[in-house]
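Q: Could you write out the predicted structure for this multi-component system? I'm mainly interested in how the pieces pack against one another.
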Amino acid sequence: MPVTISVRDLRKRYGDVAAVDGVSLEVEQGEFFGILGPNGAGKTTTLEIIEGLRQPDSGDVTVLGQRAWPRNPELLPRIGVQLQASSFFERLSAREQIRTFASLYEVSAKRADEMLETVGLTEQAGIRTEKLSGGQKQRLSIACALVHNPELLFLDEPTGALDPQARRNLWDLLAQIASSGRTVVLTTHHMDEAETLCDRVAIMDHGKILKAGPPAALVRELDQPLRISVQSGLIPADQASKFSGEQATDDGVSLTIATTQPARVLAGLADRDALAGLRVQGATLEDVFLSLTGREYRA
Amino acid sequence: MKLASLSRAMFLGFVRDRAAVIFSILLPVLFLLFFGTIYKTGNAPKISLIAVGQVSLIREARAADPGGLGKIMTLTASRSLPAALAAVRKGTDDGVVLQHGNTVVLRYSIADQTKAGIVQSVIGSIVQTANQAGQRPTYTFTASQVQDKTLKSIQYFTPGLLAWALASGGAFGSAITLVSWRQNKLLRRLRLAPVGTGAIVAARIGISVAIGLVQMAVFFGIATLPYFGLKLTYAWYMAVPLVVCGILAFMSIGLLVGAVAKTQQAASSIVNLVIMPMAFLGGAFLPLDFAPAWVRDVSYAMPLSYLVNAMQDVMARGEGPAAALPAIGVLLGFTLVLSFIAVRVFRWDDV
């Protein structure tokens, strides 16, 4: 796969703070790449340097085979950006907004209206952006970033300020965008979002990338026990402990067994017809973060 | 195409902002109403007259009362009536007196209504006193304005108020746009779009100039109503290039403020802090004739005072169109200097 973004040993300091402290990463064409980490980890600064908005103190950035800094007019039509805040012209309707952006990229108003439909805002086209909900604003902002059909899309915390329902709605849209084959780079502080959407994630903290890889691979590497639980009262806890060879606990609601050999436990439960309310929980990216930093993940 | 759509976006942003429209169009019109209705100044200034030829009556009356008339009136002699009238027209002197036999003639300027009134009443009372002393009417008194008799003081304060309206509108418009675009990161978003800074600046200038010309049209339209009685005479059309250059100068103030200020509140406070004193010290509301010398000195540093003066020159004082040129030069020079500084301190974002 051709490399879309190549970053080598990127550094950026603000006074005493090393916002980006030696970041290297590669993003391949067509990948949905996530930069994941708590607030203040340096995700946005890294993204802004890759976009060409900021000059790094040191390090190399190549985007689509070109330099990003200083402002590279050849690169601009090939990338789409959605910044953290909703960056709109004041007092324009959704349609006027996206048509204005479209004309900056010499794209037709028709294409702009189609994009509005893609993100499901046709009904809100006449409403001023100030009056749109948080989720609608984000959709519009993504539509504005996509209106010129860029090869590479940057999304900075697209679900940052949204409620859980609106977040999940937006995930559908993002998954749809990713399936169109373009490369997407997203920053987020939501672990579940990265796990759901991204082909590959880089976990960042204190300006450094701690680990990068496909979310499932990162979790698997942890080799943490699975937590298997069934409804309480189906079988006694000591019996479960005996056949599984693991400690089983019953809190009166669920009977839970933590194991690295799920086949044996599940077979044992099935033999005893004790699978009602079965849940199997594996480790998550939060556990990966915990094991990498030694502290709980706090977004 | 890009320029047009940027301009359109900015234009819609302005006309849909009711507060901004009220502030830039209606408020100045209210001021016009207010000034037009109760225009007066409370000063009792000294008057300076030019005597052309022998004006024995006035000279003797002044000599006879050094503590009274002598204190409020200066009298200089001149041989040339046209030169004396020109001095009055320019506002250097307040009136010309002549005496044809028993008729005392006063020519005065309406530029300052207060002074016009004082001049008339002082000369009138000298004539009356002389007549009473002589028991029967010996002298007659005629007074006439130097300028077009229909010209009123509105010719003077319309330019002042318009200049203030343009200054507020131009400076606020560019300062607030710059700060709010930086705050909502639209500036950076535009930086990542294939559109040059030149197009963005050109669109903003175009819109500000258009808004300013609309302000001028509305203002002149209302001021020429019979109630106010503004006359578009002399080289008034020179007010158009003056207004355009004035807007550029005020925008450059706004650009500098917008480059420095971090929040919209800070930007509007700073603009107010700059524009209000400039309006007063630049003579937008009150003529500076009676102001202390230091105020007049300070006014030379105010772009607004050049705009006001030049508009008064071409709209009220009857000077030719060329009278506007020095002011245009000063305003453009001011714009260049401030824009240069603004570009140096400009930031794309807050970090």
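A: Regarding packing and overall arrangement: The longest strand of chain B covers residues 47-52.
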